[in-house]
Amino acid sequence: GDGCGHTLLAPHSGTLSSRNYPGTYPNHTACRWRLRAPPGTSLLLAFGDVDLEPSEHCAHSSLLLADPDTGTAYGPYCRDAGPAAPLLLTNSSAVTVLFNSTSHRSGRGLLLSYASSQHPGRGEHGSEPLTPHLTVCSSVYCPAGCKDIDGDIWGNPSQGYRDTSVLCKAAVHAGVIADELGGQVTLSREKGITLYESAFANGLHSKRGSLSEKRLIFHKAHRLSLPACGDALDVAAFNASSSWHEVDALGQDRAWAAERAALGSAGHSWAAEPGSEGAWLELDLGTRRNITGIITKGSEPYDYYVTSYRVSSSRDGKNWRPYRGSSGQEDKVFEGNADSYGEVSNAFIPPIVARYIR
């Protein structure tokens, strides 16, 4: 329907909103969402925002939730007749969400998230993904689709995030959850720092922020039984499909060889032969490792950089598997650099277990 805004519906969690949210929703529109959780679970719904222009019995604009299994209905809701509590635990694994509008003048519309009841940590903080402030807790469940929720984040994965950042959006930026799936987030609140540096990571820009009393520190999911990613993995050898051999203005040969691809190398980097198709860079880690992410940077003195890339992995150097991320449907295209000097990080969720990476 034409009343639908940002929507991401995944099996265990999701996020949905009216069109234009948080701007005024349009006149004479309708939208219907069908939410389904796995059999044997119940849906937990978190009302992030229900701001529909009030009218008698919410006749002009309304939000209505229907439980087809039990015949139960919740609502209609609008401004001044909203949900009694920010959380609604249904007794069903399927709920239909109906949004309608007629002529109106004001109202942000609605923002709603859901999770299946099998996920822990969703208690009184279940609405956390939709709000910019963190309550005192060590674990929350973030629904899918937090990447596009309105709001800002300040900081980066290494420093932590200013405590006024949108929590679950920051978790996507930090690479502890995949936006298309959501998931359990473990975090701590530590003493704030003077300045939070901005960064581009996992398709999100964070802002440069000033001093805050507290900061958010995200921890890798313990259920993966993997160590936290704190150090770069050693590369035993670099290989490439080709390398560029340039003759500079002084007539000297400059080799943009594969081994120059190591992050932090002074001077020029690796580059494929100009015009080559399907160029690749290969890293041999010497043995099988758990690989949780990648950081890329351009060749700063020359203003060269890679804007997007795919990743493949191999355990034997012969059989290669494309990385498809958590969706498993298509090869994942990672968003790379927009300049030659900034570092861009992307997380592998789930991690890659391999010796070779291309």
Automatic annotation (TrEMBL):
It is found in: Membrane. Disulfide bonds join C4-C31. It comes from the Eukaryota. Keywords: Disulfide bond, Membrane, Phosphoprotein, Transmembrane, Transmembrane helix. It holds the Pfam family F5_F8_type_C. Residues 4-117 form the CUB domain. It is a single-pass type I membrane protein. This is DCBD1 protein. The keyword Transmembrane helix applies. PANTHER family: DISCOIDIN, CUB AND LCCL DOMAIN CONTAINING 1 (PTHR46806:SF6), F5/8 TYPE C DOMAIN-CONTAINING PROTEIN (PTHR46806). Residues 221-358 form the F5/8 type C domain. Gene3D superfamilies: Galactose-binding domain-like, LCCL-like domain, Spermadhesin, CUB domain. Residues 133-216 form the LCCL domain. One of its GO terms (molecular function) is signaling receptor activity. InterPro entries: CUB_dom, FA58C, Galactose-bd-like_sf, LCCL, LCCL_sf, Neuropilin_MCO_CoagFactor, Sperma_CUB_dom_sf. One of its GO terms (cellular component) is plasma membrane.
